Amino acid sequence: MVSTATKIGSFTFDNCLMNAAGVYCMTREELLEIEASAAGSFVTKTGTLNARPGNPEPRYADTLLGSINSMGLPNHGYQYYLDFVTELQNNPDSKPHFLSLVGLSQDETHTILKAVEASDYKGLIELNLSCPNVPGKPQIAYDFETTEAILTEVFTYFTKPLGVKLPPYFDIVHFDQAAAVFNKFPLTFVNCINSIGNGLVIEDETVLIKPKNGFGGIGGDYVKPTALANVHAFYQRLNPSIQIIGTGGVKTGRDAFEHILCGASMVQIGTALHQEGPAIFERITSELKAIMQEKGYETLEDFRGKLNYLA
Ligand code: SIN
Fold this sequence. Notes:
Layout: E1 6-8, E2 11-13, E3 17-19, H1 28-35, E4 60-63, E5 66-69, H2 78-89, E6 98-101, H3 106-118, E7 124-128, H4 144-157, E8 162-166, H5 172-182, E9 189-192, E10 196-200, E11 202-203, E12 206-207, E13 215-220, H6 224-237, E14 243-247, H7 253-261, E15 266-269, H8 271-276, H9 280-295
Parallel strand pairs: 3-15, 6-7, 7-8, 8-9, 9-14, 14-15
Antiparallel strand pairs: 1-2, 4-5, 5-13, 10-13, 11-12
Bound molecules: succinic acid.
């Protein structure tokens, strides 16, 4: 019997597929649609200390090979999402969830995480260190010193299962340096990758989105090779206790299979979910199961991380 069940930390999921933060996760209604779908879990929109309207519209566009966005972290404030996932966990049929969070400053991040630590929420937390779209705020995880300082402080008070959402890295030395930082901490997971930041898509003579004169995060087909490289680079380098969530360019069962082959324990879907809606989880699950069946794999453990190299 082929199964796509998986585990992250001590949490078991019936299916390894779920949404990526930013897609189908802004409101309770959207999150409930993912909850009711074939997805194994959901992650909330990244919640900040206070609610934010985000950047001016149009701030998302589908393109031939994916998408570009500069949403600017529009959200209802972390408390909205914390209340919702805490409420859901009281339902015995509820899936385990991921609460995505970040502050607009280190102080805000600590304020939020201390509130989550003090709350009744028992699920997973994803600290977003990689949003490329807030004007004047760089992607935190490109600054290794700041990243280490934040995590050092966080783990003086935070005891719940925490992972980090990472931007793509593009250099082997940066994979080494980033992994050396993450290996110092009791992280439950890293999530590779957020969008490739600050791309530019042009139609005729004009940019597609309004914020930042058209610069925005790129997702979809464009990013799959970069996502796979990041998943595998961290799979090779991180302590085995730190699991990998693979995100980027997943729109078929084959794409999900490749993420798992590179080392992912869970696979998130962003652009393709936005384009196809929550029914995508059923389609990709059956495509992934068909590939596993054909290859004689019954569980994800049978092929996770077992990427072949050329001799
Ligand atoms: C955004 O809200 O700008 C997208 C979120 C992200 O890239 O982290």
